Amino acid sequence: xxxxxxxxxxxxxxxxxxxxxxxxxxxxxxxxxxxxxxxxxxxxxxxxxxxxxxxxxxxxxxxxxxxxxxxxxxxxxxxxxxxxxxxxxxxxxxxxxxxxxxxxxxxxxxxxxxxxxxxxxxxxxxxxxxxxxxxxxxxxxxxxxxxxxxxxxxxxxxxxxxxxxxxxxxxxxxxxxxxxxxxxxxxxxxx
Length: 191
What we know:
Distance between the termini: 32 Å
Number of strands: 6
Order of helices and strands: HEEEEHEHEHH
Strand content: 15-25%
Structural class: alpha/beta
Shape: globular
Largest sheet: 6 strands, mixed
Helix content: 40-55%
């Protein structure tokens, strides 16, 4: 029910922005977050790359930064393995999706799998080797902005939920609040 409400609201925000309700492009990424003590050992893991003991949030957003799909896993689950499942869910729900941008962690057989099984182009946006320090990468900033919005929700700074489905619902609720504010702002600006 939370997801259905979220999806209807996302359609309204896209229409207000002059877009079609169904997106054709998106961006995928993941975020590792620490888990609270209530999170069971069966749904928590250790992300060796970021040195985080907890869970990982895998998200797909459209080009406006609106959530298309989320999957919460243990932090030790690889990005490619989770992306395979998440992208199947997202393409089942959003039939017009044709292109998804991703970072270098999604290379390999996933690119071929997306093209052959899902009819989806997975475009890898790589950081060049000669760049130093922080550099904004094309299209990748969209999903990073979503993570920044999520971190403004106090309940999402760390994972406090016992089940992964509850953690996903909290992300949908947070995005619902963001979209509601966006709609209210656009209406007050008009009149």
